[in-house]
Amino acid sequence: MKPLEGIKVLELADFVSAPVCCRFLADMGATVIKVERPAGNTWRETGKVNRPDRFCDEENPVYDIYNTGKKHIVLDLKTDKGLSLFHRLLEKADVFVTNFRLPALVRLGLDHETVRTKYPALVYAIGLGYGEKGPNANDPAYDHTAFWAKTGFLLDLAPLNDDYYPIFPPSSMGDTFVGMTLAAEVCAAIYRKKMTGEGDYVKASLFHNGIFAMGTMQIKCQRPFGDVYPKTRAQHGLPHGSYKCSDGEYIYIAAGYAQALIPKVFSMIGRDELWNDSRFNSVSGRKVNCDLLYGILRDAFLSKPASDWLELAKQYDIPITRMQHFADVSDDEQAMANGYIEEVAYPNGHVDKIVSSPIEMESVGCLKTEPTKAIGADTDRVLKALGLCDAEISQLHAEKII
After folding, report:
1. Which of the following is catalytic: 111, 175, 200, 352?
2. Does pLDDT of 256 surpass 90?
């Protein structure tokens, strides 16, 4: 038996953060009903835009990764009948998950205060942009803005040089972080509900999770502490960081402030004498002489191909990896060996490689990503389970409420 079997989740969400939460809940055994507007979820179209010559209604892996394992229904919540049916689903739900903006939820009467008054045993979970209070509370928010740009990452992590330009963020990573936090909170709230019979209000915002994800940076870069970013490449805690090798490949060495690793790196590049040099055998010395040290390291790593450095680093037990492109991950031997990448077959005959669920539990077993159903594919079945007859469902179709 999976941990969340018997738990009913109602999802009213767009894009990624709340859908990630619900995908994880479904992975752990919950029944998740995802409610879409008649035109369909915005992320369906976004998924297809990523590869318009390939991705389509039948093959939409960018949508599937966050929405597999759910029941998909359509309700027009702008109609009284549609909203009434939604409330009938809420009555039977253990958990309601949304990431709609607060003003929209208030207009629908689906804000936390209204819903919890009607359904006090419900766990109400919401993914927010900037939080419920403050000057940005009602602003539109995406992970690029609220998780990445506002937390300092994009402006401060680009190398400082004559061609300095802020980093462009990856897609959906901040949303995924929020979804993970929200799923953990929901699981705790479900446990509490089982113990007390009481519902709960759980929330996670892109901005808050972004600050927490960058927590070390937020602390050490406070103005009283004086760690200033952006930095030049040489100022980044040498010998820590990325280095180009003779074959054009890059390696990344994680050996900055762990003193025991510094002499190992010097030995690996054949420069043992550097550890006896006061300019390089202390944090303060390396900081003052960072430009000189970086030149030594840069030239050393350019003398051999990446494969040689990777093998040498194993001998010295230095944490190192070949730096990969996004495209490399789908064929990564380590990822494949652990089942982190899976092949998903689509009705149109194509097979795509998709990252598997990070939920790894003995009670859950092996999880498989399945192609997501079409818009409204489960509407009739879900409404029949609510007690509606065929004639009533046909009428709702005719009125375009479902």
Report:
1. 175
2. no
